[in-house]
Each structure stands twice: as C-alpha cells, then as structure tokens.
Amino acid sequence: MGNDPNFATTMTNALAGKQPKDATLTALAGLATAADRFPYFTGNDVASLATLTKVGRDILAKSTVAAVIEYLGLQETVNQASGALQKNQNGADIPGKDTFTKNIGACRAYSAWLNIGGDSQVWTTAQFISWLESQGAFNHPYWMCKGSWAYANNKVITDTGCGNICLAGAVVEVIGSRGAMTIRVTTPSTSSGGGITNAQFTYINHGDAYAPGWRRDYNTKNQQPAFALGQNRKRCRK
Prior knowledge:
The protein has 238 residues and is an alpha+beta fold.
C-alpha cells in the first residue's frame, strides 16, 4: 500500500514490536474499574474486583509490622503471648511451680532427695512442723518428700513418745492443712541417732483440744513387743 514495494516487510517489522494477545491482560482489561476497587483473580485468567475498605487502605498505608499491630489493637495480645508457656517445655518454664500446683489443687511431690534440717542434731515435733511449713507443705492437699540418704544432713525427731525418727532416707507425707494435719513418716531399713527402722510413724493434729500426737504402726519387719501381745499378762498370772 501507498506504493510501498516492501509493504509486507514493513508490516512485519511494525508488528514485531507489539505484544501478542495475552489472556491475563485481557481479563484485567475487561474489568470496569472504579474508586476503592482492586482487581484479584478468582481462577486462571479470570479476574474480578473487590472493594477496598478504609481499614484496608489504612493497613496498606502502614510501613512496618509494628505499626499494623498497633493499628489493630493487638499489642496487648503480643505482650501476653511473649510471656506464655511454651508447649515444648512440658511445664519446665512455669515460674512458680509451688503456687501453680496449689492453684490447681494438685498434689506436690516436692523432692526425692532433700536434706531435712541440714544436720544430724535432734528436733522436736514442733520444729519439724515449722520446717514443713517453711517448705510450703501445707499449701497443698497432699505433699511429700524423701530425705537424702546422708545421716549427717538430716535431723532426728526424739519426742514422739514411740521411738526416734531419723529422717535420713525417710519418706515424709503431709496431708491436710496447718490447722488440721496428718503427717506420715516411713523410715528406711537402717538408721542413725537411735532411729527406729522399718517403721511407719503417723502424727495427727487437729488442734490442741483434740489429742494431737504420734503413733507407730507395727509390721512384719517391726513387730509388736511381747507386752503388747499380752504375753506379760500370762506371766503375771503364774
């Protein structure tokens, strides 16, 4: 055309710089644009328009994540999450385990190796109870510990009226509250300080007016003395 002897070449060269038809662009070109509307794809080369709200515009205008969190009022949530317990710690990161177990009403296995009193000197029952209180034993419905296996580091209770209790290796259980307590002590198979072995001592105190005191249970390793079996009575009758 136009007497261009190289018309075909001219047209080929002209079209070479043009973008071929594109399905994605065609989909976008078919949208009826308007204020506060932005395009998105609902499928392969299928476009639609969504409404951009003021909240959306405000968020897009923020330059940092912190600014977005502040705008959404989530800072307190972030602060709480930063101090939350971590699942993979399995409770190891609980800051106050004693208070935690108290609040949920759980029993407290305090220690499997504990120096009870710190030396081998004698104790009264009152001193023993005072020590238990200092360890938080009365904060729980049930509390227990085991004395360390070291005679030099554990006290000996001498005022039970039914035998000495060496607390080395002994299992101590506390049930109840400071005002109404039951304490059970199970002694090991060997002892020091004149402690009774293979025994279970129980102390019950529901108040001074209710006959507080110790008792000792007998068993196959710690049998009743002859007089308790009535043998003395038989001798007296002879």
